[in-house]
Write a structure and sequence with these properties.
This protein is an alpha+beta fold and about 140 residues long. It is built from four helices and six strands, in the order βββααβαβαβ. The N terminus is likely disordered.
Length: about 140
């Protein structure tokens, strides 16, 4: 899969072909969910809360994408090695729920503290950085 831009259309080129034209298809990719990990997981754990499990099942049942990517993130309070492992385990857990729901998961990556969306200088900002992002791959509307 690779990024493609042509004639004002951009997206991910995959080995799927349009059944009508036989041409390769470009896909729309967007971040369709960002959920704070405080809601999804128990503190300092990759075990889902009941609320997190329910939210994820409902999300994957209704999102309507043909495939997903899952990215895990942490704040900077622990070591880089620990945060990388925790974010990867959390992303793996979310991907597992997706697969149990019948979804195709194309990519699962833990970024640890390496891609913050806010400075890690306050409790409120650190909470923003503790998140799981779910990217949806969809066919463009004709």
């Amino acid at each position: 899969m690779h990024w493609w831009a042509d004639g004002g259309v951009e997206g991910y080129m995959v080995s799927r072909r349009d059944p009508k034209t036989g041409r390769h298809m470009c896909l729309e990719k967007n971040t369709c969910a960002v959920q704070n990990t405080d809601v999804l997981f128990k503190t300092d754990s990759y075990q889902l809360t009941a609320q997190g499990q329910q939210w994820l099942r409902q999300f994957f049942a209704s999102a309507g994408a043909f495939a997903y990517a899952v990215y895990g993130h942490t704040d900077s309070r622990a070591s880089d090695e620990y945060n990388m492992r925790l974010s990867q385990n959390r992303a793996n857990t979310v991907a597992g729920v997706a697969r149990q729901s019948g979804a195709v998961v194309d990519r699962v990556v833990g970024f640890g503290e390496r891609r913050p969306i806010a400075p890690n200088n306050s409790a409120a900002n650190m909470q923003k950085n503790r998140r799981v992002e779910i990217v949806c791959y969809r066919y463009p509307n004709p």
